[in-house]
TrEMBL record:
InterPro entries noted in UniProt: Rossmann-like_a/b/a_fold (IPR014729), Universal_stress_UspA (IPR006015), UspA (IPR006016)
Residues annotated as domain UspA: 8-134, 145-273
Pfam families, sorted: Usp
Family per record: Belongs to the universal stress protein A family.
PANTHER family per record: STRESS RESPONSE PROTEIN NHAX (PTHR46268), UNIVERSAL STRESS PROTEIN UP12 (PTHR46268:SF6)
Protein name: Unannotated protein
Length: 273
């Protein structure tokens, strides 16, 4: 099957979290002309642990398809079953897709372990935007979209993605840049207002080249850590959108921030590579 940017790929294994992801993908499909179809993808691991792709025989694949049909409660589904690690299977299949949607799963006391290994890995390796859906989220397509901007190219791509999404939903966008004062042990650069001015500049730079497509965009420069600021916004937002590379702090730091926000956000989160 040819995967195109008009297709939504959804990871479904029959769990309540994955079914919630599929339901949200259906809402995305209904928004307009951006997406045309949904492909459900499931993975089966080699039962002997030998890394043998042929281990997914027809019987096991058919059983998985039937399990998904029963969990979703629909029979007219496009389902592809592959062998391998779930995150790598989803990333590979969605390589040319418009959107990858996955459910949020995972528990534990460590903040970076709450998301679940598949979702966390997908945020780091997928080449298309990844949407993470909380299983308890009730679809709200009328709330504004909140976008985190930090000067990186991926955050600018996140803003462009959010504008397209907001236009389809007929909602507004809030563009947020964060800043913080240096800790006592960190060197101080410039005047007391230097850090806030940098955030203001990031907002101005993002807006200067933006095609808003008629979407109302409000900008806010807010003191605080990106995770804390965006998570507070998730309580009322319809969607949090952010990039996965960093202008400040490096790739690893950016991925950790994306995982933390996706782990604890009240609303769905989209991470744009």
């Amino acid at each position: 099957m040819k995967i195109t940017t008009s297709m939504i790929v959804v990871g479904v294994d029959g769990s309540p979290e994955s079914v919630a992801a599929y339901r949200f993908a259906q809402h995305e499909l209904a928004q307009g002309e951006r997406y045309k179809s949904i492909l459900i993808v499931a993975s089966l691991t080699d039962p002997l642990g030998l890394g043998n792709d042929d281990a997914v025989d027809d019987a096991r694949a058919a059983a998985m398809r039937q399990h998904i049909v029963e969990a979703v409660g629909e029979s007219d589904l496009q389902i592809e079953v592959r062998s391998g690690d779930p995150a790598h299977v989803l990333a590979e299949v969605s390589d040319d897709a418009g959107l990858l949607v996955i459910g949020k799963r995972g528990h534990g006391g460590f903040r970076n372990l709450v998301l679940g290994s598949t979702a966390s890995s997908c945020l780091g390796i997928a080449k298309c935007p990844v949407m993470v859906i909380p299983s308890t989220f009730e679809n709200s397509l009328t709330s504004e979209l909140v976008v985190g901007i930090d000067g990186s190219l991926s955050s600018h791509r996140a803003l462009a993605w959010a504008i397209e999404e907001a236009a389809g939903r007929s909602v507004n966008v809030e563009l947020v840049a964060t800043w913080r004062r240096p800790h006592l042990w960190e060197p101080v650069q410039g005047s007391p207002g230097h850090y806030e001015a940098l955030a203001d500049h990031e907002l101005e730079d993002a807006m200067s080249s933006l095609d808003s497509k008629g979407v109302l965009v409000a900008t806010h420069s807010i003191e605080g850590h990106p995770s804390e600021v965006l998570l507070s916004r998730s309580e009322t937002a319809g969607l949090i959108v952010l990039g996965n590379e960093a202008h400040k702090g490096g790739r690893i730091h950016a991925h950790a921030t994306a995982v933390e926000i996706a782990s604890h956000s009240v609303c769905p989160v989209v991470v744009v590579p």
